[in-house]
Amino acid sequence: MTVRPFRAEIPQSALDDLRGRLQRALWPDDLPAEYGVTNERVRALAEHWLEKFDWRAFEERLNAYPQFVTEIDGETIHFLHVRSSRPDATPLVLTHGWPGSIVEYLDVIGPLTEPESADAPAFHLVIPSLPGFGFSGPTKAAGWGTYRTAAAWAELMSRLGYESYGAAGNDAGSMISPEIGRLAPEKVVGVHVTQLFSFPSGDPAEMADLSEADQAALAHLQWFYENMFSFNTLHSQQPHTLAFALADSPLALLAWNAQLFGEHLDADFVIANVALYWLTGTGGSSIRFYFEDAHTTAHPEGPTTVPTALAMFAGDFQSIRRFAERDHANIVSWNAYDARSASGGPRDAAGHYAAHEAPEVLVADIRGFFGSLDRWPLLTAAHEALRTAVAGVTDGNVPTPCAEWTVNQVIHHAGGDQQGYAAFITGQPGPDFNPFAPSGSLENALGFLEPTLAASSAAFATVSRSAREVPTPLPQGALPAPVAVGAAALDAAVHAWDIAVATGQESPLTPFLAESLLPVAKELAEPLRGFAYAPALEGSPEDDAASQLLRYLGRDPQWTV
Predict the structure, then answer these.
(1) How far is residue 203's CA from residue 215's CA, in Å, rounded to a whole number?
(2) Chain segment 312-322, per-residue pLDDT in tens
(3) Which residue in 198, 337, 397, 421 is deepest, having the highest Cβ count within 10 Å?
């Protein structure tokens, strides 16, 4: 599908109509804050909208960035696409939520795309408007919730030519971004969010020994549910009933959306977001996102597995790590910040719009996370599993599940294979022995293994994630980069299991490794049957991902010495 340039150009007649509606607005009786957003707050914002906010200036700011539209799954998708001048920049899709918009991220575009320091990571930014929001809306079809949007964003990044990228988000974007990683784990290098929306499952054991901080977070969540959750209930049950008011009255839209814009926020930021909804007619279509999520039948099972980072801000939703790790198996960065400079009261969720409120803090966290990631985390995890298994060996002469080989022979073979992958990529010498006839004469197993893992890691570090033909020692020859890396990781991880079970250690096949390697095995194993992998064994309904992987490769998960 085509990608077309776009400019924001709202007709003057629409601005004139907006002004007239604000001037003629009818006001309700004034009531205290416990009844909702106050007349005083809405009046101040409305007056700012009428007298001080300059849409044309905002439009000019928006149009200073390259914008585009394309059609995905029947809907128009609007997005900013701002590329860095740096050739080593990482593509990154940034996703907003409700009642926010692309306005959330305008303050971080410059620092992320063109950092002052050459040592700081740089990013090519893709900042889409959610389906039904802003210039992406209104939506024409139902079903546009978290999962369908995640699939659309994966398609958008592929359409833009990005076969390796990160995903970051806030609010709804914090739900969508991990799902992009679930859908395309071979492409998404990492997920960075400002909330991990993981809640108690109902198991009493989960609540045992919670820290005071976690108990306070739960108490605040309960307060929010009891005092501020009406928007979610209405959006989830009857969004169209409310849509009549949001479509007819800019004052109604302002009051409704302002309930989740902190009172400490500058009025220009609040009005820019609300005006974008009003002038695109998406006040009603945007809130359907909640209805779609509440009524979806898509509920992916199991935790996400791509490297995940949380940058949590005081005053906002406080994630609880115990619950988050149940839903996300590969959390590698967890940071909490207090960037509050002021508070507008108990209903003021300071820090929720961190990209606007504390852009320097958020940018630094994003840079730190993505800068720390390996290009090939699957290979790193597999190498670490092999390294750990070998470190736990006390007797290298015991038998293993791997043919008739001893532990030392498996180590010899596994190291030779890693060196072989490195040799095919770099043209440097490979192992000086036949990996399929290992002697197993190893006096210092770790000393032998470490250089081979380093050579493999260094070789694959030179491989672009979009490379289509990476040389390998396999019968298949050259393979696309993710498959070639997966093959090396599969070899290392399975032999780590061979060594571990033979020497009485715990299985190193984590859910992340097993779930990531099973599709690799199914793509590669058949030509290797007979000399690398035995015929597949019949599975069991109780098999977890590791057992499925092992049986597919002809290994019995219950094997013992």
Answers:
(1) 16
(2) 999 899 999 99
(3) 421
